[in-house]
Amino acid sequence: MNKKIPILIAIVLIGIAILYVVFSGKDTTSSTTANTSSDTVSVSKTPKTVTIKGHKIPSGDIIINQGDTVEWTNLDSFAGQTYDAHTVTSGIIDTTGAQGTAGVVPRSGSGVADGLYTESLALNDSFSYTFTEAGEYPFYITEHPTISGQGTIVVIAQ
Predict the structure, then answer these.
(1) Nearest CA among 81, 64, 40, 53 for reference residue 128
(2) Which residues are within 8 A (CB) of 93 and not within 5 positions of it... i.e. 6 or more apart?
(3) Which has the closest alpha carbon to 98: 112, 84, 87, 85?
(4) Adjacent-strand bridge partners of 136
């Protein structure tokens, strides 16, 4: 028997297993997976992790169950910058900058906090929040001195 056939079969089986995990809706890792901005980010382990890296957050909604915890982790290095943290805040970004706290950089928008939470995260810091009520909870990330990303936590009633 040709030695290449068992290797090919093993590769095909691994590929099928990966496709099953990806398309079954059950994420076996604790990190989020980002797609296009119209997609949904689905996470399943507690706490759900939103990683801030490359001055970005995953696009799309993060779907969780009522009572689940979301953890934001800052993996951005600010070496040589005059600022040294990202701030995670519940609320929305006003791209016009007409309301809320404006970013220092022109046309960076402004954050309009809703008062649920706000936490400054230095490199490798994490912040967790447990969502006890069903609903949609927008949040934004400020990269001092600019507004750098917005997301939504969608909490499903249990």
Answers:
(1) 64
(2) 109, 110, 111, 112, 140, 147, 150
(3) 112
(4) 154
CATH fold label, 29-156 = Immunoglobulin-like (2.60.40)
What one-character-per-residue DSSP string does the chain give?
A: --THHHHHHHHHHHHHHHHHHHHTT---SSS-----TTSEEE--SSSEEEEEBTTB---SEEEEETT-EEEEEE----TT-S---EEEEEEEEETT-SSSEE-SSTT--EEEEEEEEEEEE-TT-EEEEE--S-EEEEEEEEETTEEEEEEEEEEEP-
pLDDT tens-digit series, residues 41-81: 444 445 799 998 888 888 789 999 999 999 999 998 877 77
